[in-house]
């Protein structure tokens, strides 16, 4: 709810932002100049990004894409953290990297717990993407 409220307020404030001011070119002669959000591609992008329109099915499709993107990010972060943690646990004799977990057991236990939870998050996101794709496939017209 907080996300919706702040996004909606941002869109309304941005879309209604407009100011006209008289700019003096030389004494006795001024021209009106207008500033509004449509003069900046960044502001137009902000409104477009914060106010997705269209049909609910189209919006759900965008959520599936964002969920898949988030899945990729979380899975990549989990893999990277897991790889470094494995080196900390086992070391690497070829590169002369020592085992860290022998000295910092509590630290490594925390890392292991975090990586397991991150892996569960990745699996949950994968299931959500699959569920979303399944639900969307049921809404598509059959040919």
Automatic annotation (TrEMBL):
Topological category with respect to the lipid bilayer: Multi-pass membrane protein
Stated family: Belongs to the Casparian strip membrane proteins (CASP) family.
Localization in the cell: Cell membrane
Domain (Casparian strip membrane protein): residue spans on this chain: 2-57, 59-123
Transmembrane segments: 69-89, 109-136
PANTHER family recorded: CASP-LIKE PROTEIN 1U1
Main location: membrane
Domain of life from the UniProt record: Eukaryota
A Pfam family: CASP_dom
Keyword Cell membrane appears in the UniProt entry: yes
One GO cellular component term: plasma membrane
Keywords, ordered alphabetically: Cell membrane, Membrane, Transmembrane, Transmembrane helix
Coiled coil regions in record: none
Protein name (Swiss-Prot/TrEMBL): CASP-like protein
InterPro entries cross-referenced by the UniProt entry: CASP/CASPL (IPR006459), CASP_dom (IPR006702), CASPL (IPR044173)
Quaternary structure (record): Homodimer and heterodimers.
């Amino acid at each position: 709810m907080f996300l919706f409220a702040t996004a909606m307020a941002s869109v309304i404030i941005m879309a209604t932002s407009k100011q006209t001011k008289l700019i003096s070119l030389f004494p006795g002669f001024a021209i009106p100049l207008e500033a509004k959000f449509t003069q900046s591609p960044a502001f137009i992008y902000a409104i477009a990004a914060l106010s997705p329109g269209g049909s609910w099915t189209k919006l759900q499709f965008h959520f599936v894409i964002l969920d898949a993107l988030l899945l990729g990010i979380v899975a990549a972060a989990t893999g990277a953290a897991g790889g470094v943690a494995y080196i900390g646990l086992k070391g690497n004799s070829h590169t002369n990297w020592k085992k860290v977990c022998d000295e910092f057991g509590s630290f490594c236990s925390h890392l292991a717990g975090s990586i397991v939870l991150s892996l569960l998050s990745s699996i949950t996101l994968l299931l959500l993407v699959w569920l979303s794709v399944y639900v969307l496939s049921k809404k598509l017209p059959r040919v």
